Every structure is written in C-alpha cells, then in structure tokens.
Amino acid sequence: MKVTQIPFKKTGFFSKTMLDYLEQKKTINPFYNNFPDINGFQKQIEEKRKTFALETRLVLADALKNQYNSFDISDKTAANIELLKQENTFTITTGHQLNLFTGPLYFLYKIISTINLAEELSEKFPEQNFIPIYWMATEDHDFDEINYFNFDGKKVTWNRNDGGAVGRFSTEGLDEVFEVFSEHLGNSKNAKYLKNLFSDGYIKHNNLADATRFIANELFKDFGLVIVDGDDKSLKQVFAPFVKDELEKETSFNIVSKTIIELDKNYKIQVNPREINLFYLGDDFRERIIFEDNCYKVNNTDISFSKDEILKEVDTNPLAFSPNVIMRPLYQEVILPNLCYLGGGGEMAYWLELQDYFNKVNVTFPILLLRNSVQVVSEKQAKKLSKLDISLEEMFLNQYDLISKKVVENTAIETNFADKINFLKKQFSDLKEVAVKTDISFLNAVNAQERKQIKGLENLEKRLLKAEKKRQKDLVDRITLLQNEILPNQSLEERQRNFSEYYLEYGSGFITALKQILKPLELEFTILEL
Question: What is the model's pTM?
C-alpha cells in the first residue's frame, strides 16, 4: 500500500467555492464560523458547551436507544450513546442519502473521515468525548437519486413507485434486485459476505431506513458509529419551536435571501430558499407548505390550516413537519451537541449560506470540513502509469490536455508554434509603424491580415498536433483506456463506483486501509495505491 496526497485543486474536480474555503480567502471568510483546525475546534467546543442543553442530550440518548432497539448494537456504539448524556461529549457528523447498497464509494469516505476525526480530537482534547454520527437522510423524497448503484460498469436498479419520505419505503421488491446483483458477484468468500450483507439488510428489514441502518451498522459498528434517523417524534418535538418560528415569521427565507446576495458576488449559489422551508409529511407524500390566501396549504393536496390550527398541529403531530435542505442543517444542530459537519463540495456550498440564519435563531454554527476524497489505483494501473510516464497529478488532467502533453513529449517534431507566432507579430509590428503614417484604411488592412495569419498558424498548429496524435495512435489509445479505467466517465471514481467492487477484491482490508490512511484535517486529496 502506498499513499500520496495532493492539493484538491490539482485534481480539477473541486469548485472555486471549496478551493477558496480551503485557502481561507477573505471573500469567503464572512460565511463560516470556525475553521477546521485544532484552534478552531478549541473555540467550537467552548461555544457549543455554552449553548447545548442537558435536557436535549437526554431526549437524544433515549431516542437513539429506541431507534437501535431491534439492532445488534456494538458495545462501543452503546457506550457512545450513553456518553451523549454528558456535558463534555460532542458529536462529529456526516450525512448521506439512503442510496441503494450505500451508493457511490464516497459514502465510505464520509463515514471513515468522521470516525477518524472523532478519534483525532479525542487525542487532542482528552477531557472531552467525541462521537462519530451518520445522519440518515430518511426524509428525502427524490427516489431517482437513490434507487441504484453501479457495479463493474453496470447499473443495478430498484424499480418501484415512489412517494413520500424514502426512509419509510417498503423494501418489497428488493429480493429481485438481490438476484440480479448476486449473478455479478461470484462465490468467493468476499462475494458471500456482500450477498449476506445485502440480503440481511434489504430482505430482512421492512423499510429503507432500517435496511440502511443495518448495513451501515454492520460496516462500522466496531468503530462506535452512531446512526441517527431524524424522522423521530421525540427529536422533532425538540425542534418544534423553530418550526413555529418558520411558519410565523419565514425567518430562514428572510435571512438566507440576504446572505446569498452577498455570497453571489463571488460564488455560485447552491440552493435558494423558499418562503417556508418546510414540508408536510404523510405516509405516502411529502409536499411543500405554502402560505396563501391567509392560510397554510399543503401543495398538491386538499390539506390546509389556519395559523392557529397549524401551530397546534406542530404540537400534536410534530412528525408531520419535515425540514427541507435549508432547515435540515438547523434541525441537526438543534438536536446534536455537534462541533463539525463533514460533507462534499456541494453540501459545503449550501451550508455556507446558513451562518447568518443560525445566528438569528441563536444556534451555534458548526465547523464545516470538506470530507476526504480518495482515488484508488491498483498495482497494475500504477505500472501502466509509470510506463506511460504519467504522474499521479497528471492523471487528473483533462483527457485532451493529457494526451496532447504526452504526444508532444514523445515526438522530436516541434509542435509548438509560439515562437513562429511571436516572430509574425514582430513583423506586423514593424509594418504597423509604417501603416500609422498612412491612411487609416491601410492600418485596418494590416491589422486584419495579422489576425488572419496568426489564426492560420494556430490552425496549422492544431492540425500538426492532430496528425501527430494519429501517428502515435497506440500511445493515444493506451492513455485513453487507462484514464477511462481510473476516472470512469471522466469523473472521480468515488462518484461512479460502489464499495462492493473493492470489497470483492480486498475484503475488509479495504476498509482497514481507508481507516488507516484518511486524515481529515490535512485537507488534501488522497491517492491510494493497492
């Protein structure tokens, strides 16, 4: 095993927002609280300690015990839930959708980064306890985003009618998905583990939330991971005052709208708030709450409430109120003694819109940490990269640029016309000195001719490179094949592949290797050669 770390910006896959955040640029500083370093965590501990109530801790611990009631909970996870009652215990949190069989690879990277950060902070601050949390996005309703995973270049899909919160979906029909998946796995020891994990998760549990909890628990329970389902009555009762504030004052819309005006001056806006950032959740629907004609209406239904009625509904039926992408982070921070949220670039971008909103409702804004990203390179692929003289940084280049670079390096022909173009510009510069002394029409003719001839040289340069690529077809094909193998669909593999591909080959050793190498506070991209 060999590990190399490179700056995130060297990969070309991370946004300006994230790169500026990692570099702590002045333009992005107003949109976050403490930065993810040891000094930042020291400050965050003190801030959260002052604001998080003991009674919320007790409600949280009881809710989690109930959620784990029918699961094989590890001693370490059980101990961590008990520790949440103590005022010197804090959480480190990541969240993820209920993707079929964990979905893309980065599901593992998120959770292992979270576990490793909790362990590192425990060493740095021995008087505190730090608990790794996986927040299941059980209330999402975009089924098309989670109903598949990729395995060995094939898409394994669960087809069913969707509606409502995905965590409540019945797992009926997943036995058919299991049969299709099993055909691809073979009968090795690792294949049998994957088959059992899938079948025990999805066929032996009645809904998607329980199935996902089972799988995540099986993979990470030895590390004390605590899994939270926000679709919980007692937890939503804690959040009820913020729901009422949203319904009455539309606070998130008013504050976030102002924030994104400022953020938009330098960065792309990830999400836009609605007037009310809550859904009404039923058994088979999750629809927006809209204030219209002096009453609260549930979109696409006949359900409506007066102001007094909907505020009473929050008290009597808190489960029905489901926060959207703007309010879900607040819900998390209200019910968890949380210090830090680890997420991908897109997640970080929408969290950056929320600090002023958190301040307005007097909830401590967490530290934001870009999760670890990993590129796995096999021993065979590493040898091919070496033979092609492609460095680990170069393999992330745009494919056209990578091929052009290597073709040029592999030829004795001068393919760069920069000197010729500069020489041509010098000749025209001399001619322009004469032209300015004559009629303006002649000067215009000289400028037009200059543009035409430079354009001609640039086209010839491109044609020469194209011809050279054709002559070096074998090299071009080898580079193309290798890069497509490492970066499927010209994207980071962590977004394309499922963990089962690597588990099939390396078994539990793959998770062990990730646990060993991922260092979330180093803020670099990791390349793992196995």
Answer: 0.93
